Amino acid sequence: MTSYVIRGAKILGGEPTDIAIEDGVITGIGADLSGGEEIDATGLVALPGLVDLHTHVREPGREDAETVLTGSQAAARGGFTCVHAMANTEPVADTAGVVEQVWRLGREGGYCDVQPVGAVTAGLKGTQLAELGAMADSAAGVKVFSDDGKCVSDAVLMRRALEYVKAFDGVIAQHAQEPRLTEGAQMNEGPLSGELGLVGWPAVAEEAIIARDVLLAEHVGSRLHVCHLSTRGSVEIIRWAKSRGIDVTAEVTPHHLLLSDDLVRSYDPIYKVNPPLRSNDDVEAVRDGLADGTIDIVATDHAPHPMEDKECEWAAAAFGMLGLETALSVVQQTMVDTGRLTWEQVAEKMSTKPAEIGRVSNQGRPIAVGEPANIVLVDPAAQRTIDARDTASLSRNNPYDGLTLPGEVVATFLRGRPTVRDRALVTPLVKEAVTA
Ligand code: DOR
Ligand code: ZN
Ligand code: ZN
Fold it and tell me: Which residues bind substrate (predicted)?
């Protein structure tokens, strides 16, 4: 296996130093290292490989929109070395068989570790629990369970799921959306939904479920993770829950950090997403929540959809946006360049903590001697104009098309192998053996 010396990288934005990699492991950090192929990292920031807790790959079932391989390639281009693949596939990832298939496809692809998320309820139907234990015991070692796309709205089922996963240190990741309050909902409820004549999606539909679930998690002494927080009230509830010592974590998406509901004026379904883009005040609140630690992590909710499901009238369009290839740039723009987060904190919120929440022990590790060489090199001074066609994804539903965003991934290393080099995907890859 090739050895590398990364020269002059600023680890977590610190002073430039060299990083030596051998056999997939970081073997040296310091000045003037030698003994491998040279990678010039002058001016680049080195972060631990990013970990996404919330990715939709569409395999099995909708391989026209995304496969495990293309999703992994998009992830690598975004600086990720691990993604959690949501369960809303066809068939649903609600058995050991399906999660093992997804896990194995990820390892075979070799661009990124793909950690399957198991469904909470059979077929995402919300009526009976899926085989949580069997998925946890499978080769995929599932720790995160979610009906994402749908809310586990039945309080009894939610309670049982929270209780059940305690046995294997699992976590329930809730898509907080009260179904009755969001029937037919199309966009954030507010003056604008009235003006545009689109059915409103009230903040309370999200907040009511989060309030219920933090209390349930407290009651049964279990671990809860809340997906894609999007409102000021949600941030306040999580802040309150944490102050009470409730074991809850929360995520925000890049799009909820940058975009707001004014964009819906265009009636362009590229901006249609679940939960919906919210008000500017909500955007401010989620930025503050991420900065002060109330919101633990950034997760992409990368949701590929084929053109025909997005290029149609608003009401008929699918919910969801791509996110893997732009996440770090959006976080740089909204949080780093505004002085709200340091690179060290970005590493925490996009690598260390998501790995911790997902209990992925070999990812989200520090850049230190003896650790697996999962590293992303970022050029924070780069400016790139986003082009939706320039993607590894099979889909093109990129809401940032035409925007200029800061930062660019120059290289990504997965266990010492470059998956991205010189700002481009490495293809074909030199594969590593798949072992369980
Ligand atoms: O916008 C979304 N798209 N939100 C979800 O919860 C599901 C996702 C999807 O699967 O497309
Ligand atoms: Zn969701
Ligand atoms: Zn999702």
Answer: 56-58, 88, 274, 305, 319-320
